[in-house]
Records
---
Amino acid sequence: MSTTMRAVIAVGQGGPEVLRIVERPRPEPGEGQLLVRVESAGINRPDVMQREGRYPPPPGASDVLGLELAGIVEALGPGAGRFRTGDRVMALVHSGAYAEWAVVDEAVALPVPDGLPMVEAGAIPETYFTVWSNVFERARLQAGESLLIHGGSSGIGTTAILLAKARGARVIVTAGSPEKCAACLRLGADAAIDYRREDFVAAARTATNGSGPDVILDMVGGPYIARNLDAVAVDGRIAQIAFQQGSRAEIDFQPLLMKRVTLTGSTLRARPVALKARLADALVEHVLPLLAAGRARPPIDSVFPFDRAAEAHARMDAGQHIGKIVLSMGDAAQGSR
């Protein structure tokens, strides 16, 4: 086993051109950790923000990019025993997924179900942990309720569609083109709103017979913050997970009182391992059976070889992808479709 590895970092701040492949010492697993030979790594919006200098890794974390991966367990650290060498796992990491090797906290690693390709497995942890935490735990979406997802064609959005439909909810999405709206409908969304052509508040009310959605999942922020309060149903819940259009807005909070709205938000990366472990347990119980049955599997927009990480980031920057963009260490890499 080599003592060095290749990894992707950002040299400075900027566009995809700042990404470089460098040689680093192979990490060693610590207490309760696994050493994983990475086969695939999902690309997420926080990776882009880190590359741009707007989302630094937590204190003590590696500067190697990447928050999720799938691979093969090669060694166990002291105290680790849930997995064995040779097992296929997928996992969240604080950073370090864009590399040939990574250390993973065993408590947040999930077994890859039989029949699930590793490229798809590498696209699961970040978005599925995020959606489960915010939509089903914090916003308490129930079967029979309605969910409005902003950015329905994104990795988060497509995951939310699949999981919400699998659990019996009615799903409405916003997306930025007829093609993206059509893709969301093919994934199972009940209604799709082209936000460039329609007012999503009015359209969401129409899609819910005038009541408004019970839950809204928003990563846009900015002007959407106030408009979500207008759109949401009485006793509705709004889960804020990002602010792509800014975290500041002028808001009339009267609807918050009159509708008895719950407004919640969270981030995932900096949360303690113990909390992420609890989410991992929930995914094992509620989501892995779906994946094993061939349901709610992540739609893959494109797969790029490890050494074309900059091209993969350029595709995300272009905003035309539908579903997840993945880096692959193996022969599955095919470029953008």
---
Amino acid sequence: MQATTAPSTPPIPGKYWQWRGHNVYYVQAGEKQPQRPPLLLVHGFGASTDHWRKNITGLYPDFEVYAIDLLGFGRSAKPKLQYGGDLWRDQLNDFISQVIGQKAVLAGNSLGGYACLCVAAQFPDSVAGLALLNSAGPFSQNQPTSEPEALQAQIQPPQKPLQQLLGDAVKWIFQQPLAQFILFQYVRQRWVIRQTLEKVYLDKSAITDQLIEEISRPAFDAGALDVFVSVFSSPQGEKVDVLLKQLTCSLLLLWGEADPWINARERSQKFRQYYPQLTEYFLTAGHCPHDEAPDKVNPLLRDWVLSITQSNYSG
């Protein structure tokens, strides 16, 4: 397959913050606005602050913007821990209090959306608003749709007939260290990353060599295998409906409707069932609308933050 060579977006230089003895990478752009909350952007599984570069450059003229690498991803440390919603919730909450220093609007894609929801529901004093872009996380009354499981279904080596035949036996095999190691070696190859992105991006021109490199590079860091194994094997966190019942801030949902991992219309109804006062938009994009359609996402996010700022935010 021919490589896509769209113009690259220069990375914004970042900094490191020490959290629980580990290096956490983040990017900061724009000036503090007295009457506007800062924004904190949180990536999905396997991504990093790099995935928000088009949004940071689009939003920082109007807001102070932060993006952070969750522990275990991007340029952040990859210690051997139990990874999941609780860990990332605590990381984001501490980052808001220790680095940002005031309530922030959280915007999260996929797995990052679930982490942001955990913060907004359980630490409401840290959050001025919540924007979720194709957010992951399980609801109580049906099969879980968390991103790692959806991802695993998409990137298994071509053994579908065997998988159907053996069912639980294959799941057991993939819990064994050697099988996990082999699967990880497979999924971090650039051609496999490209193949996976081809499935989840509607606009294939957004799949650039730069994007492939940004996703591939952290997967070769020391500790990356342990993170991969932990995310797949850790117990699931709090259910999305339970978190929505605790939520008190304004909620924006941005859906890439062509997402093969998440049925946006069906999932939208579940969110509305538990949080009917939300605002939402459906976009012609896949699983990562912020990267695929920043010209749509940035204005929607900007206008929504300004609208909730007038009524809810006191700086």
---
Amino acid sequence: MRRTDIVREDGTWTGLSLEVRSRRRPGLCLFSAERRLMLTQGEQPVLLASVAADHCEVEFWRTDAYRSVVPPLRAAAGRDLAGRPDRWAYRFAEYLMEAPGGPLHDGRWLLSCESPLLRGNYVRQEPSEYWGEMVVEGHPHGYIDWFVHSGSWEILPLRPMPDHRDGRVKAYRKQAREGTLAPVLLWWISGLDCHVILDGHARLAAAIAESTTPPLLHLHRTADGDEVAAGTERARERYEAELARFAELRGRHGTAVPDGAAIAGASLTRDIEGLHTATRPTWAWPLPGGQAEWGRVAHEVTAGTWGTDGSP
């Protein structure tokens, strides 16, 4: 895995680009069959989902089979890496590559501390209220609301969220107050239009209980090498065309017209940065056996609660 820091012009670290090779299919794999989705970890179904025919919601069923891709984190690590999302990103990148049940596969990924969730609290709700609303409820069965919450980047836990009485949550609440809480690791799945929690269920619960914004690391696919190369070439051509336009204006109107380097250069920087950070759709593999196989698995893991057509 090749890793590259993504840094703004002012030197602010915003993410870690991951170029993954020789991993054709991930251990935590998303399969699709028409409007049905199945997330498996190894051979075990973790999440079954059925998109409504009117595309207003997604029914889901969790199986309690998910196992975190991150080993238990010690409090000392939180103190040592407090305020350093870049160092956490490198550590989590190692865990993601080493874990046999992780979501990484061939291509480019971004592990960023700048999740859209951090910009979504438009009405300035208290952190406990906002983050509590972002968590999709229901276990083992529930639904993701695409009608009211379309584009809000909700969070779907892959196992039940612990409550404030849980021992882990109590320990993490102290870290949340101290500012030493390790990031919650999220994976954006475009087919669900929401995140899933890869690690940090108890840490997120602790942040909500303390009404504080949780530190996040947000994982998503980005453009592959061919797309980056082609986009970079187009950006270069636009840059050169803009410089030529300014040169023509300067020839007509004199040196009062700027040479355009600052304007065109800033645009070039934004275009290239976007190629390395923009979100791309999550890959899903065709489910062997198609919808019939999805129905068989759904009937088995839900003890017949879900019909073969995906309706509860």
---
Amino acid sequence: MSEPGLLVRSEGAVRILVNSNHAARNAITPALYDALPAALEEAARDPAIGAIVLTGDGDFFCAGGDLRQLATRRELRPEGRRAKVERLHDLVRSIRACPKPVIAAVEGGAAGAGMSLALACDMLVAARGAFFSMAYVKVGLSPDGGATAFLSRFLSRQLLTELCLLGERLPAERLHQLGAVNRLSEPGQALTEALALAARVADGPANANARIKRLCENAGAAGLDEQLDLEAELMVQSQGGDEAQEGIKAFFAKRAPDFTALRQSSAGQRQE
């Protein structure tokens, strides 16, 4: 049996990252703490890559933390436990800090920290019948991984509290209604749907995409004046770039802009 780890492959301009721990429903492993941030950083540096898809191996996204490992945390001093939690939080930070859009493809379910990883992504595709669960309370734990922050952006305090206190399964269809899931797919087709969405994103202007991601990340907590300042700063950068030149030329020429050529040109310059 192969060791749990992160499988990495590409389809065109889309980098696919597969959390592979099939025997434990893709529970998070110590290896993933190092491998996922490194893979995201490598994809961010590669100008040939325009978008990233994060998924689980087989028919389940991620069961969260490995309870066999969590059971030993009691033996650690508080600062040791905090260091372990921060490794998970660094995974979440790496997804949010990646300048390229990251799309989660969820089959089966995402529980505990697995739900946190899915919600940390910029967009989320889930199969019908998949579930999400803040299951921490069922094993005497409180949430981590940023799930309460992400959920609070689209849930009322009352519903968020209910989800965390009861740990009940929330169907993907319900999260879609609430706005947290971008696309619903048929069972077994979440990755296919996510790849199609990622390919559309990857065809867009890479630098503008990174700026848009930054704006969307900042908007949830920023006041109007702060957000206006950031929009102005990033618009100034955009207006001076090759992507805007190509996009505006294409508009007046009544043709589709070729942002892919700009990305490939950057990739060629990188190899030289």
